[in-house]
Amino acid sequence: MKTIYKLLFLFLFTSVLYAQDFSVVLTPYFKDAMRDIFFVNDQTGWMCGNAGYIYKTTNGGDSWTQQNSGVTKDIQKLYFLNENFGYVGTVQGSVLKTTNGGD
Q: Pairing with 96, which of 29, 46, 50, 83 sits 20 to 30 Å away (CA)?
């Protein structure tokens, strides 16, 4: 009888441990892996990734618009001071600057 309780306990304990798996579905589908995200407020933010992809949201992430970075290098980081002025850095060491929010 003790063996049954031990097995039951082991089954319940391990099933709780592995119940943490989840997946996130991003809408829209992004063309490549994203590496960084930065919001200047609760509505406006940018996301950057491989192959020069940059996306901007103005509605808290409900929808994203692709922006033209002008490069095909992988973008590693981005940082914005406000809705217009910001920088992005590529994996290869280039730094890009915008003064109009990436438009």
A: 29
Cα 6 from Cα 8, distance rounded (Å): 5
Q: What secondary structure, in 3-state letters, does 31-70 show? A: CCCEEEEEECCCCCEEEEEHHHCEEEECCCCCCCEEECCC
> Which pLDDT belongs to residue 103?
86
Amino acid at 1: M
Distance CA(88)–CA(43), nearest Å, equals: 19
Q: What is the pTM of this model?
A: 0.70
Residues with Cβ within 8 Å of 69's Cβ and at least 6 positions away in sequence, in order, are: 48, 52, 53, 54, 75, 88, 96, 102
Single-letter amino acid code for the residue at 101? G
State pLDDT tens for residues 33-59: 888 999 999 999 999 999 999 999 999
Judge whether 37 and 46 are in contact, CB under 8 Å.
Answer: yes
